[in-house]
Predict the structure.
Amino acid sequence: MSIEEIRKMVDALDDQMRELFEQRMDCIKAIAEYKYRNDDEIFDPNREKIVLEKNLQRLNNKEYAAAYERFLQQLMDSSKVYQTQWIGEQETKEQVNQA
């Protein structure tokens, strides 16, 4: 297989991952909305630990474990940043509406 063929496969996987990422972020937004309405904390260390352990156990090729753990942590960190921004925007809107 040529490098061009392999790169085409990677490009196709990137397309799928982008679509899944957007679906995941839609869920993250719904979680942010729930946390905002219920005054919940954004960061739940127990939940993160469970997510990491569960997904690392399900990983078929354990050779990728360290890279996959970094990938998952990056996703969770990005999710926390997004939730923080989204909730901040809602709080700003509330303040403007109350003024």
